Amino acid sequence: MIKVENLKVKFSLDNQTVEALKGVSFHLNQGEILAIVGESGSGKSVSCNAIMGLLPSYATVEGNIFIDEKNIKDLSKEDMRRLRGSTVSMVFQEPSAVLNPLLTVGDQILETVLAHKDVSYKEAKDIVLETMEAVKIPDPERRFYQYPHELSGGLKQRVVIAAAVVNKPKYILADEPTTALDVTTAAGILSLFQDLKQTYNIGILFITHDLGVVAQIADRVVVMYKGEIMEEGDVYQIFDNPKSDYTKKLLSSRVYL
After folding, report:
1. Where does 2-152 have alpha helices with state H?
2. DSSP string for residues in 22-40
3. 2-13 and 59-67 as β-strands: parallel, antiparallel, unpaired?
4. What is the pLDDT of residue 251?
5. Tens digit of pLDDT for each residue in 204-234?
6. Spatial distance between the Cα atoms of 46 and 83, rounded to a whole number of angstroms
7. CA distance 95 to 160
8. What's the confidence (pLDDT) of residue 254?
C-alpha cells in the first residue's frame, strides 16, 4: 500500500511561510479508489506531489511516506525516478500542459516504456498500442503518429492515462483529471478509471472537488480542509452518516467547490 503518516508540508518563499499540510495520515490499498475531496487550497494536490517526490525546493517536509514499505525519504533521486512510472504514476489535471506538442503521442508514451523496460523499439511500440487500446483510444495505430493538437481534450487525457498505466504500476495518483472536460467526456474517463482498477488491480488516489464524482467512483473518501483531514470513511458512511460539520456543509451545499 501507499501509507502517509503525519505528513506536514510548509512552503517558505519571500519571507513568508505557508503551512499547506498540518499532519495528515491516510493510506491507499491496491485495487481500490480513494477519493480526496476538498476545496481549493485544502492540500489535496500537495499530498499527491509529496508522494511523487515532486515538491519544490522551497518546501519543508516532515512525516513519512511509504510506498510498498519503502520510505521515500530513504530513497535516492535515481530510486525515486525508477519508482515513478513503474510502481506509482500520476495523471495531471490538464493534459495539454503535460504533453509535448513537438512529439507524437505514441512516442511520448513509448518514452515511458523505454525508460523502465529493456525492450526493443518494436516491442515497446506493441506495448504502447496494446495500452492505447486498453484505455479505449480508437484506431491506436493511426493515433500513435498524431500530435497532441490533433486530438480532442478527452483523447489527450486518455493518452496521459495510457502513459501512466503503460508499465502496469500498482498505484495511480489522479489530480482532478476530469475538471477540464465536458460532462459526457468526463463520465467516460471516470468509467475508464473504474475499468483500470478492476482489470489491473490498480490502487487509485483520485483528487477532486466534485462530490458527484466522489459518489460515482470512490470506495473510500478523505475530506480535507486547510491542510487537515476532517473525516475519513467508506463512501456510504461519508454520504449517509457524515461525522464532521465541514463534511455536512459540503453535502448540504452540493455545489462545485
Report:
1. 44-52, 77-83, 95-98, 105-116, 121-134, 140-144
2. EEEEEEE-TT-EEEEE--T
3. antiparallel
4. 87
5. 999 998 888 899 999 999 999 999 999 999 9
6. 19
7. 6
8. 63
SS3 64: strand
Contact 169, 202 (CB under 8 A): yes
Whether the CB-CB separation of 4 and 22 falls below 8 Å is answered with no
Query: Residue 67 in contact with residue 83, Cβ under 8 Å?
Result: yes
Please state, in angstroms and rounded to a whole number, the distance separating the CA atoms of residues 36 and 173: 11
Q: How many residues does the chain have?
A: 257
Domains and CATH numbers, the chain: 32-42+77-253 (3.40.50.300)
What are the residue ranges in the chain where pLDDT is below 70?
254-257
Beta strand spans in 108-202 (E): 171-175
Residue listed under C-alpha cell 475519513: 232
Identify whether the C-beta of residue 144 lies closer than 8 Å to the C-beta of residue 106: yes
* Torsion angle of the four alpha carbons 60, 64, 67, 71, in this order, in degrees rounded to the nearest 10: 90
Contact 65, 3 (CB under 8 A): yes
Residue 14, pLDDT score = 85
> What is the DSSP secondary structure assignment for residue 201, as one 8-state letter?
-
Q: In angstroms, rounded to a whole number, what is the distance separating the alpha carbons of residues 60 and 102?
A: 35
Cβ(173)–Cβ(47) under 8 Å?
A: no
Contacts of 170 (CB under 8 A, 6+ apart): 30, 68, 87, 88, 202, 203
Q: Is the model's pTM score more than 0.85?
A: yes
Q: How far apart are CA 8 and CA 22, in angstroms?
A: 5
**What is the C-alpha separation between 203 and 212, in angstroms, rounded?**
20
Nearest to 30 by CA among 233, 238, 174, 172: 172
Closest CA to 224 of 52, 90, 69, 26: 26
